[in-house]
Write a structure and sequence with these properties.
Elements (H helix, E strand, L loop, with lengths): L3 E4 L6 E4 L5 E5 L2 H7 L3 E7 L2 E4 L4 E4 L5 E6 L5 E6 L5 E4 L10 E6 L15 E3 L1 H8 L4
Length: 138
């Protein structure tokens, strides 16, 4: 998908993502649900990301394999960044102009609370599968 530009709510941080995968993911882990109050809907943006206003981005090391970034002015959630590869996963809602989106994967599917579920048929990874995947990347 072609590049897309966006910003946080207050405009202090502007982001240009050169490559956005239209097959988005949803994460049900407790960290994501605590961070945003709901599952994390994310588009994979790879490493070709330009952040203007980086001095307004605060990083939080949320796991041994990733950090989360947010705007220090308005609190907008900006990204989840993998440490090993530098790849960005950004909230789908940051890019309202994207078309042709498709829910592709649900992470931590066994951690999904019983009070919601999605009708979409997707691939799923459990906590054990994710921990095994990241074991050699930490």
């Amino acid at each position: 998908m072609a590049h897309s530009e966006t910003s946080c709510l207050c405009g202090a941080v502007k982001i240009t993502a050169e490559e956005i995968n239209p097959k988005f993911t949803v994460c049900h882990c407790q960290s994501c649900r605590t961070w945003g109050g709901a599952p994390y809907f994310a588009v994979q943006c790879g490493t070709k990301v330009i952040i203007d206003g980086e001095e307004k981005v605060k990083l939080f090391q949320s796991s041994s394999w990733a950090s989360r970034g947010f705007c220090t002015e308005c609190g907008t959630h900006l990204f989840y960044k993998l440490k090993a590869t530098g790849e960005y996963n950004m909230p789908v809602g940051l890019f309202p102009q994207l078309e042709g989106l498709e829910m592709d994967m649900q992470y931590f599917s066994d951690a999904r609370p019983s009070y919601y579920c999605f009708a979409n048929e997707t691939k799923e990874m459990t906590t054990a599968e994710i921990m095994a995947y990241f074991a050699d990347k930490i």
